[in-house]
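W.,

You were right to be curious about this one. When I first looked at the sequence I had no strong expectations either way, so I just let the prediction run and decided to look at it fresh. Below is the sequence, 304 residues in total, followed by the output.
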Amino acid sequence: MSAAQAVGADQAAVAVPPRFAGARRFVRAFAHRPSGVTGVVLLVLFILLALVSPLFIGLDQLDVTKADGPLLAAPSGHYPLGTDQAGRNVLLLLVWGSRESLRVGVIATALTVVFGAGVGIVAGHYGGFVGRALMHVTDWFIALPSLPLAISLAAVLGQGETSITIAIAVTSWTATARLIRAQTLAVEARPFVERARALGAGDWQIMVRQVLPNVTPLILVSSTLTVAGALLSEATLTFLGLGNPASITWGEMLNNAFFNGAFTAGAWWYVLPPGLAILVVVLGFTLTGRAVEHVLDPRTEDRR
């Protein structure tokens, strides 16, 4: 490398904004974890497939009344994953179902993380009566069995994606709340928070400007791990018949396969694909979340 090139490289390094330096270190550390990279690749493939599916799948191909294929036909050249009880292409149903399942899982996770993080930060910052009250409510929700509670909420709110999303969020926020509260207590014990108070910073400023940036990495880890649980909960509730029968999700496919004789008919091609899709996506989110957790806090690997 010539002297001019060395100077140019140094200038480029200096030109990188400091706020991007941490992101670059995170990407490099994450890239050295094969399990995390594998998880990201799996998720990217499914997300891209869900996004581009409307380009090659028409609604007519998913309509029960317009299906013209053989009923519960085994996989063949024309139907790589066979057909369902109405003669629809299972492969097309599987691809289209990724859109609905991922959307419900991501939205439910966003609600869970936002609400849980808000409760945790408020409880950790104020403490006293407010903190104890919020933690008592959190403990009460933890004591309740999550699946029966989600089933009850979804049944009361009515069938559909909205009710399932709300039911998942209501029953999944407690772990995030307790985790963020503990981290908030640790952050507020640091000198820079005391200095901010001494300079006249109010409660809102401390929570938003001091605490939130320091608990954001933990929120990120929690969200990646929560999506996996949300997807499993969505599939469970939909399989139990609480979803919208007109929508196509992986859980709805399993529900239709069970109640339309696919199990007794030995139509494994109608049962295995949605189950394996759920397994692979949950594995992708879990691998990604664990890798992010280890990169942000390498001590967690030593404690396992």
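Here's what jumped out at me. The chain is about 75% helix and 0% strand. And, maybe more interesting for your project: Residues 6-16 have pLDDT under 50 and may be disordered.

Coffee later to discuss?

I.
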